[in-house]
Design a protein that fits this description.
The chain is α/β, with parallel strands linked by helices. The chain is 43% helix and 14% strand. The protein has two domains: 234 residues, Aldolase class I (TIM Barrel), CATH 3.20.20; 64 residues, Non-ribosomal Peptide Synthetase Peptidyl Carrier Protein, Chain A (Orthogonal Bundle). It has an eight-stranded parallel beta barrel with strand order 3-4-6-7-8-9-10-11, surrounded by five helices. Strands 1-2 form a two-stranded antiparallel sheet. The structure holds flavin mononucleotide. The site of flavin mononucleotide has 22 residues, from loops.
């Protein structure tokens, strides 16, 4: 897949995941072969009025190959203003979130709420396209509660989006049920611009099933949690299976930017995900969940692995 002069290689992409895809995780996923990585969703309003939060969310690692900044908002003027922000400078591509189902986002008419307001969604996309030289893309779901992905995708294309990503569930579904790969295949056939398929890809088998839809790229979210090597697994690349090394690399990068107090709380979920594949880890998991320090957590995990 190619967007302007940006070559996506095999088009295997790490999904944007708020509160999860920090700089350390993006770095580790990139080292295992993720061809592109997204920032967490960035509020355009916050970028202009409360930039400290955005500053930490937009730091990046040199191992990230193609950096995509994902923005959200509902006001075309604020969003086009945000495009000029220093914080978005590192990104080769700007993606607009039109799929987030979180109530606090929908309440503001943002994220997936825009799938219920095509004229506004179109205005946002075309204003962004007009106000930057960088490619604009859109990530969306099937619809709010019914599948309108064809109409929505066509609107994105007409408004000037360079590619789209479809997470093939409705906002109402959240994460329940299976992603609708037939809807992804229909969208791919209907559009001229590239389509990235997203939903439930966790290994080579599910990846190949997604590829049968004809998509140009495949995005992986939850399948990477605790398994940043999923990208090597899918590509059939030999990789270092040492979980401790992955965890330490992830933490070392975060340590350069964040306070230790924040880190211990934040890393808990990642550590528990990393431990998922380790046999007999239930007691150790309980200990990590309440561990007072990173060092202590690492010791628990190291011992667990040694005793395998
Ligand atoms: C914890 C979490 C946070 C997410 N945050 C975002 C986000 O900031 N922006 C976005 O477009 N999608 C977000 N998503 C949705 C994912 O990008 C992806 O579309 C979804 O998880 C389906 O893909 P998967 O089946 O591979 O996980 C999030 C998902 C999860 C689980």
């Amino acid at each position: 897949m190619r967007i302007d002069n940006i070559d996506f290689g095999e088009g295997l992409i790490l999904a944007p995941m708020a509160g999860v895809t920090d700089i350390g995780f993006r770095d580790v996923c990139s080292s295992f072969g993720a061809d592109a990585t997204y920032s967490e969703m960035l509020s355009c309003r916050a970028m202009l009025h409360n930039p400290q939060k955005t500053a930490l969310m937009t730091i990046y690692s040199p191992s990230e190959k193609i950096k995509i900044g994902q923005i959200f908002g509902h006001e075309p003027e604020i969003m086009t203003e945000a495009l000029k922000s220093e914080y978005l400078k590192p990104y080769q591509i700007i993606d607009i979130n039109m799929g987030c189902p979180a109530p606090k986002i929908i309440k503001n008419g943002e994220g997936s709420a825009l799938m219920g307001n095509l004229p506004l969604a179109s205005k946002i996309i075309s204003s962004c396209v007009k106000n930057t030289d960088r490619p604009i893309s859109v990530k969306f779901r099937l619809g709010i509660n019914t599948d309108i992905s064809l109409d929505f995708g066509r609107m994105c294309e007409e408004a000037g989006a360079k590619f789209v990503t479809l997470h093939a569930r409705t906002a109402q579904q959240g994460y329940s049920g299976n992603a609708d790969y037939e809807a992804i295949a229909r969208l791919k056939s209907a559009l001229k611009i590239p389509v990235i398929g997203n939903g439930d890809v966790v290994d080579r088998e599910s990846y190949l099933k997604m590829k049968e839809t004809g998509v140009d790229g495949v995005m992986i979210g939850r399948g990477s949690l605790g398994r940043p090597y999923v990208f090597s697994l899918i590509k059939g690349i030999d990789y270092d299976k040492d979980v401790m090394k992955m965890i330490k690399r992830h933490i070392d990068i975060l340590r350069a930017h964040y306070e230790e107090d924040w880190l211990i709380k934040y890393m808990r979920k990642h550590l528990l995900w990393y431990m998922t594949g380790i046999k007999g880890s239930s007691e150790a998991r309980a200990q990590v969940a309440t561990s007072p320090s990173i060092q202590n957590s690492l010791k628990i995990i190291e011992n667990l692995i040694k005793n395998q």
